[in-house]
# Entry
Amino acid sequence: MSESKHTFLQVNDLKTRFHTPEGTVYAVNGVSFSLKEGETLAVVGESGCGKSVTMMSILRLIAIPPGEIVSGEVIYRDDDLLKLSESEMEHIRGREIAMIFQDPMTSLNPVLTVGRQLTETLRTHTPMTPEQCRERAVTLLDWVGIPDAANRLYEYPHQFSGGMRQRVMIAMALACTPSLLIADEPTTALDVTIQAQIIELVKRLKQDVGMAMIWITHDLGVVAGMADRVIVMYAGFIVEESEVDDLYENPRHPYTIALLQALPRADRRREKNLKSIQGAPPNMLTEPVGCPFAPRCEFVKEICIRENPLLEIVDGKHKSACWVDVKTGGLR
# Structure
């Protein structure tokens, strides 16, 4: 990523809560990060760690109530998205920042044709005529690799396979050539072969459009070939941030190390079992005290139980939120 690229998204101390009958869920706990034009940022962590809620908070798609964005700033270009009116946000969603969701079958309207749903985005955000919208929709479907695009405009989501439905979702997200695409685990519901095709498609389209991208995933294995930087989240916190190559070669947080050790790799094929992360994620109904990973951490010290470390630079551009130097096992 070129140093000349400008930062156009800056998230500062974002906190999101959900107020439920069981208590308050501390979903996002002071998340801060930035994104440059044209950059691809991967957000990694196990299910329930706050990845999706963070991005939904950025776009203000959290249901209020029960959700509440307690504090923070989301500076997109010169505007704080958390302070804009709903009509101003509607102008940004889809046109400036687009999002692809996990399950295309629940994201697409089953009673509207694919063409109707594609052209709706264009009618909302552009001055195109109906005929221009239709032509653009055909181009988009062809662009994402759907054959016989002109005729398939008139078909319904259930007439498409899972992989094809996800391609339709990508076409809808790219309809207005957004500056930022947020992809929320878009390959989770697909088989491995189709996953690889979708990842390659998104990488190619990103280069064609020149947009920035945030790719949310629980799988570090898909990150290496597509991201410039990686953020690792745990229990609503960012615990590590690094350029992608440095993260794989030199992980500095115990959770990241554990995630990498759990990955199947060709050079470990003689090992009978993958190494799992012991224990369970914390109860998000409890306000965090100390490091949230401490109960599962092999490096844990007494201070880890009492205080949660800040996310700080440990080497170059590499940040970690850990009291321990994982190379020596001693305190930093």
Q: What stands out?
A: The longest strand covers residues 7-20. The CA atoms of residues 43 and 216 lie 5 Å apart. The mean pLDDT is 86.
